Amino acid sequence: MERCYIGIGGVMRVLRVRIEAIGGVGGREWEVPMKIITYNARGLGGGEKRVEIRRLVSEKHPLVLCIQETKMETLNDQLIKSLWGEGEHIYSYQSSVGASGGMVTVWDASQIVVWSSFNFEHVLAIKGNIILTGEELIIFNVYAPCELAAKKMLWERLLLSVINNSDCYICVCGDFNSIRSIEERKGRVVAFRQSDADVFNKFIHDSFLLDLPICGRLFTWFRGDGISMSRLDRFLLSNKWCEKWPHCIQVAYQRGLSDHVPMMLHVDESNWGPHPLRMLKCWSDLPSYANGLLSPIKGGRVLCYNRS
């Protein structure tokens, strides 16, 4: 097993939040916004990329940030702070091999308690629970290899880990370096390996994970020619996760300094649920307002009133 390192960016507030969660605050029922960002940064050595990620985190306020291809053997608190900002956070990372690979997962320590972080080749996982609501979840940060034989080994090992944690809410995200069909690749010469797609699809099927439709853009990786592109990045969710957060969507954002685009999983409530009542305040000035409001409900008909 490869080494997994954990760093703490400040957790004193966690104890206070947990106490408030037990007794509640003013009888409020707390809801935690479920937001997870995944991004193949293609290196964190450059200051501009760190600024780009910090801007994204500041704008989206994720619970968890998963980054692939750090291309760094060691990470420190100062570097993670440059990505996450001042808020309480803890992180776990897997070292790169020279300038190849490397992953880091950062989470909001005021919202999530992680009691286990483990890794194996191409995978970095955290397991814990949401403080205010208690859901137990596991998030796999994946950076898959390009070789088919290595992918087969990865999918087999990841499948076993998913099955062994089926009692949790499961999210598998990252750069899978695989596509599911020829429609997920575009370019001058479309190189499509059916065997690669078959192995990847079998992993998704056998692990009972769901691949939600992508929003924002169809492709997540772009070659420098601006013509060749593929959907290599995604979120895969367990049925249990989708039942708990049924309105989850995965959104691919605009490309930045990397050849991959950042993606976010979040709950979209904007088009769900009953519409709020819409009325003009001046209607309440009408003499017939009170009776007119109740009459259509009791009589099963709609009454229209004219101010004149």
Poorly predicted runs are 10-29, 300-308
Distance between the termini: 81 Å
Strands of the widest sheet, in order across it, are: 1-4-5-3-2-17-16-12
Return the average pLDDT rounded to an integer.
Answer: 85
The Cα radius of gyration reads 23 Å
CATH superfamily: Endonuclease/exonuclease/phosphatase
Strand content: 25-35%
Could you say which structural class the secondary elements and strand pairing correspond to?
alpha+beta
What's the quaternary structure here? Answer: single chain
Number of strands: 17
CATH architecture term: 4-Layer Sandwich
In CATH, the topology is named Deoxyribonuclease I, Chain A
Number of domains: 1
The H/E string reads EHEHEHEEEEEHEEHEEEEEHEEH
What summary fits the major beta sheet?
Answer: 8 strands, mixed
Taken from the alpha-carbon principal axes, the silhouette is: globular
Tell me the name of the CATH class.
Answer: Alpha Beta
Q: Count the helices. How many?
A: 7
Helical content class: 25-40%
Q: Could you explain how this protein is built, in words?
A:
- The protein has 308 residues and is of the alpha+beta class.
- The chain has one domain (4-267): Deoxyribonuclease I, Chain A.
- It is built from seven helices and 17 strands.
- Strands 1-4-5-3-2-17-16-12 form an eight-stranded mixed sheet, covered by helices on one side. Strands 6-7-8-9-15-11 form a six-stranded mixed sheet. Strands 10-14-13 form a three-stranded antiparallel sheet, with no helix packed on it.
- Strand 4 (89-94) and strand 5 (103-108) form a beta hairpin.
- The longest helix has 17 residues, at 148-164.
- Mean pLDDT is 85; it is low at 10-29 and 300-308.
